[in-house]
Amino acid sequence: MGYFDGIEPVEFDARGDGITSFRHYDPDATVMGKRLEDHLRFAVAWWHGFAWPGGDPFGGQTFQRPWFGDTMKDAKAKADAAFDLFAILGQPFFCFHDADIRPEGATFAESRRNLEEMVDYIGGKMEAGGPKLLWGTANLFSHRRYMAGAATNPDPDVFAYAAATVKSCIDATQKLGGQNYVLWGGREGYETLLNTDLARERQQAGRFLQMVVDYARKIGFDGTILIEPKPQEPTKHQYDHDVATVYGFLKEFGLEGEVKVNVEQGHAILAGHSFEHELALAASLGILGSIDMNRNDYQSGWDTDQFPNNVPEVALAYYEILRAGGFTTGGTNFDAKLRRQSLDPVDLVAAHVGAMDVCARGLKAAVALLEDGELERLRADRYAGWDGVAAKAMLDGSLEEAAALVEERSIEPEPRSGRQERLEAIVNRFV
Fold first, then answer.
1. Domain extents for the chain?
2. So what EC number does this one have (predicted)?
């Protein structure tokens, strides 16, 4: 008996229930000359869907999954269930950490062998018609050995163990044809400055990333290497606080042409930004790679990882992605959890169906906004003065020359409306 027995594959039906059928996500519908599936590039996250036990900061496990256990038999049963869900949803990609798909061994060598066996098992399922791998990554945060970080750890043995783990995960991602490899520094930060050497830890983190890039290119991995920014939680501060911080880090270590970002909505909110801000900034810096689509509860101060349900927010996010040219190797990964009271198999299906519909509605609204063009016309009009010859020459000149212009032309700037309320009303026409 399979965990999802009795649940039929989800099909598009504009009059369906939005739980076991899509009302808005028609993968074959064409918008802006591309299939909706190829715009959105949905992926299911293995960790929250199949490894998460349903706990929170105040309570432990609530889920009872038949594959929960520490044996290879359990790991394969988990993979079977995962590919059953992939088939039901029909989404084109999935993502995983090493610890999601294999049991921890008594030694690193045993863990690596477990990973390699599971990669072969999963690869067989992919060859039989399963989805592709959007990205792989390493779990460098759950085990107690990483309590003081991985690359930034004060113990060089932990740095070495993390390096070995990442190497094995890049190998796994390469073997499965992954289109990206992600680094998330879950504990790469500090809890107190009283025992932290910021300069040393930053150098360690930078050198670690250089080693990752060098190895990936050495073995011929031609996918995109991504960093996922996050400001805090579980640590007080992390070195990859937000997109701007990550870009400065990449510039410092000469990696801005090698590494892009995987932006998560929930992390953007924790950093005090909107999702669309982080996406627009990443695009402007040339480092937008992929996204984790989830949301936080605005009444909670922690990363609740809920499935998206806010179409206007999602529309503004996809507007920035489309303005940047859309995804290449990246996609929309649902780094989202069920609520701990959602115990039934159909709950996991319904969560993804609802989220995929929200994303489809948001992307179609973003397409309509772009095709209407009024936002972009008004944006261009706001900066039109900078298109003039004199303005361009001023940027190439000196401070004294700019000051002289004011005297020569008797410049008295006249403020112009930013039109914010009108711009918001334009957006509201489409969402």
1. 11-372, 385-430
2. 5.3.1.5
97 a catalytic residue:
yes
- 295 forms beta bridges with 306
Q: How far is CA 414 from CA 401, 411, 417, 418, in A?
A: 21, 9, 10, 13
267 is in an annotated binding site: yes
Annotated ligand binding at 222? The verdict is no
Q: Which residue among the candidates 24, 39, 97, 241 is catalytic per the annotation?
A: 97
Is 74 marked as binding a ligand?
A: no
pLDDT recorded at residue 245: 97
Q: Is 100 designated active site? A: yes
User: Could you give the CA distance from residue 311 to residue 317 in angstroms, rounded to a whole number?
Assistant: 10
The whole-angstrom separation of Cα 6 and Cα 302 is: 36
From the list 26, 100, 242, 357, the catalytic residue is: 100
Phi, psi angle pair for 220, to nearest 5°: 85, 20
Looking at 62-107, list the stretches that DSSP marks H as alpha helix, in order from N- to C-terminal side: 72-89, 98-101
Q: Where are the alpha helices (DSSP H) in 90-155?
A: 98-101, 108-127
Distances (CA, A) of 248 to 93, 239, 254: 31, 11, 10
Which amino acid type is present at position 266? G
Q: What is the pLDDT of residue 301?
A: 76
Residue 408 annotated in ligand binding? no
Q: Which residues contact 250 (CB under 8 A, 6 or more apart)?
A: 227, 256, 258, 259, 287
* CA atoms of 52 and 369, how far apart (whole Å): 38
Q: What is the mean pLDDT of residues 202-207?
A: 98
What does the alpha-carbon distance between residue 298 and residue 324 come to, in Å, rounded to a whole number? 28
Q: Specify the CATH number of the domain 11-372.
A: 3.20.20.150
